Amino acid sequence: MATIVVPPVTPSPAEDADALLKAFQGWGTDEQAVIGVLAHRDATQRKQIRLTYEENYNENLIQRLQSELSGDLERAMYHWVLDPVERQAVMVNTATKCIHEDYAVIVEIACTNSSSELLALLLALVSTYRYNGDEVNDALAKSEAKILHETVTNGDTDHGELIRIVGTRSRAQLNATFSWFRDERGTSITKALQHGADPTGYSHALRTAVRCISDANKYFVKVLRNAMHKSGTDEDSLTRVIVLHAEKDLKGIKDAFQKRASVALEKAIGNNTSGDYKSFLMALLGSGI
Predict the structure, then answer these.
(1) CA angle 214-216-222, nearest 5°?
(2) Which phi-psi region, left, alpha or beta, contains residue 11 (left: φ > 0; alpha: ψ -120 to 50)?
(3) CATH number of the structural domain 131-214
(4) CATH 1.10.220.10 segments of the chain
(5) What would the pLDDT profile of 186-237 be if each residue is shown by its tens digit?
(6) What CATH number does the domain located at 13-69 have?
(7) How many angstroms separate the CA atoms of 208 and 103, rounded?
(8) What is the rounded distance in angstroms from the CA atom of residue 39 to the CA atom of residue 242?
(9) Can you give the pTM of this predicted structure?
(10) Does residue 233 sit in helix, strand or coil?
(11) Is 7 exposed, middle or buried (0-12, 13-18, 19+ CB in 10 A)?
């Protein structure tokens, strides 16, 4: 479930565009007015506002936002105003420029979207059409659990079979395979992948993929908790999870976070952020703070 709150009756795109223009004018930007509009409009409404703003005022709304805002708020708002597919493409493109550090971004997007969403986006894991239903072939699950075990125990660093299985099977089928692996081998596939050196980085990336597929909420709770570590806040990771999931499944992530961390996600974020950036994230979380 999504967390953003869109009023049942909203102003027209022209009225919203006008409100944004007024927020940009005068001495300094009225960031709260910008948040009040854009954080409470869905993707379709935001696109209409962008088009109307450009038509009425002959300037690009995204570029104007980038010039009016700064810091974490500017980066978060930039991604939020983009169309969802465009947003993910931008994030993946950025991640590919520093692949050794940000491969997890690619894996997250590849493994937590539906086939129809992925067909509009990427290659590799996302290039194959993945069945989204709940039907499971138990014999196939058992057979491929054996293949995974042989791949891992043989120290095969190219992980060809593992990539094939993870990249083509449905979420339900993969969870059945992972369950067979755990029951037969007494350990999870993610733990099995931790053993042995892997200079290519495949094992780490594949563990991320498996975690995203088997329990996406649990995975993103870990991302969020790591982003709010005592050593400092990772605003990029925090922004990525909130912005990508606010219109999709952030409610489930919030519930899982509360259960795991024994504290509300809103409170945790409130303790680790400040100012207009904090207000924007809280709005996307559906909080009145």
Answers:
(1) 115
(2) beta
(3) 1.10.220.10
(4) 13-69, 131-214, 217-285
(5) 888 888 877 654 545 566 777 888 888 888 999 999 999 999 987 789 999 9
(6) 1.10.220.10
(7) 9
(8) 12
(9) 0.84
(10) strand
(11) exposed
